[in-house]
């Protein structure tokens, strides 16, 4: 079949196929162009231009192909379909396709790539849904998900550090009698600074300039000692006579918190 533009004047433009072919040639298109644009098989387009509609699957296919063809070449599809019915002398429902298909317009058939894309999306959706369902109803996974989460133990609260007392080695030393107690206070040269009985509640301030002051007493447990107003441990246990016990601020501050009894100390004796 010739597609030369020079053939156009020789056509009898009274049949549908002839009019479509003339319009195609006037538009400068080949049948392959129409096939690409309409997705109608080339053999069916050739049959339409040859007015051989008996080779088409059905009347529905014929009208669908003619509509698609007419749109591409700019012809009035409504008029062409009406003339096609008159030309074939058939109603729309009188032509039964051998295949049983009923496609009105092949141009509306989605391309293969679109169909494949839709199929892949559907497969992905079905697979994802199946995975979700298997995870949701898996008893092992459900058991793990429902397991209670043990609360984290609270961090232990450390007690605040006790304040460190200021150095006591330079404060004034004060001896106060808890009960009546005899004392002898002297320095390292054996110079007596005080000797006698401190009545209950009486106190004796150790001279800050004393040269290595020391004390002798038989009731060290009845003497309260402070350095700069801060209490320090007692000088010794009860019922022992203690001698040569340093009572300067530096010496008292350096003493242990609970002095052990002096095994060499003599039992307390009543002083004259």
SSE arrangement:
Blueprint: H1 16-26, H2 31-38, H3 42-49, H4 59-73, H5 77-88, H6 112-137, H7 139-146, E1 173-177, E2 181-186, E3 192-198, E4 203-205, E5 214-217, E6 223-227, E7 230-232, E8 240-246, H8 249-254, E9 266-267
Antiparallel strand pairs: 1-4, 1-6, 2-3, 2-5, 5-8, 6-7, 8-9
Task: Explain this structure.
The protein has 272 residues and is of the alpha+beta class. It is 35% helix and 15% strand. It has helices at residues 16-26, 31-38, 42-49, 59-73, 77-88, 112-137, 139-146, 249-254, and strands at residues 173-177, 181-186, 192-198, 203-205, 214-217, 223-227, 230-232, 240-246, 266-267. Strand 2 (181-186) and strand 3 (192-198) form a beta hairpin. The protein is rod-shaped and about 155 Å long.
Q: N-to-C terminal Cα separation, in Å? A: 158 Å
Give the DSSP E fraction (strand runs of 2 or more residues).
15-25%
- Any idea of the CATH class of the domain at 7-108? Mainly Alpha
Structural class: alpha+beta
What key phrases describe this protein's structure?
single chain, 272 residues, alpha+beta, 434 Repressor (Amino-terminal Domain), five-stranded antiparallel beta sheet, disordered N terminus
């Amino acid at each position: 079949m010739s597609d030369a533009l020079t053939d156009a004047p020789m056509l009898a433009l009274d049949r549908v196929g002839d009019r479509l072919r003339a319009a195609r040639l006037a538009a400068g298109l080949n049948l392959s162009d129409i096939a690409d644009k309409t997705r109608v098989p080339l053999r069916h387009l050739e049959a339409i231009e040859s007015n051989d509609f008996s080779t088409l699957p059905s009347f529905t296919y014929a009208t669908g192909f003619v509509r698609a063809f007419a749109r591409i070449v700019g012809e009035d599809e409504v008029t062409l379909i009406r003339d096609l019915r008159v030309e074939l002398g058939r109603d729309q429902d009188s032509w039964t396709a051998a295949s049983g298909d009923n496609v009105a317009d092949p141009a509306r058939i989605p391309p293969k790539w679109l169909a494949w894309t839709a199929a892949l999306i559907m497969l992905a959706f079905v697979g994802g849904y199946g995975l979700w369902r298997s995870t949701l109803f898996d008893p092992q996974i459900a058991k793990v998900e429902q397991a209670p989460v043990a609360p984290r133990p609270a961090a232990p609260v450390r007690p605040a550090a006790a304040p460190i007392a200021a150095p006591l080695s330079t404060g004034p030393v004060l001896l106060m009698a808890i009960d009546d107690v005899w004392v002898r206070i002297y320095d390292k040269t054996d110079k007596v600074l005080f000797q006698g009985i401190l009545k209950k509640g009486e106190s004796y301030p150790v001279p800050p300039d004393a040269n290595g002051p020391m004390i002798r007493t038989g009731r060290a447990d009845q003497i309260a000692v402070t350095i700069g107003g801060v209490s320090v441990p007692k000088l010794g246990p009860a019922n022992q006579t203690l001698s040569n016990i340093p009572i300067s601020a530096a010496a008292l501050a350096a003493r242990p918190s609970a002095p052990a009894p002096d095994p060499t100390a003599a039992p307390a004796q009543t002083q004259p």
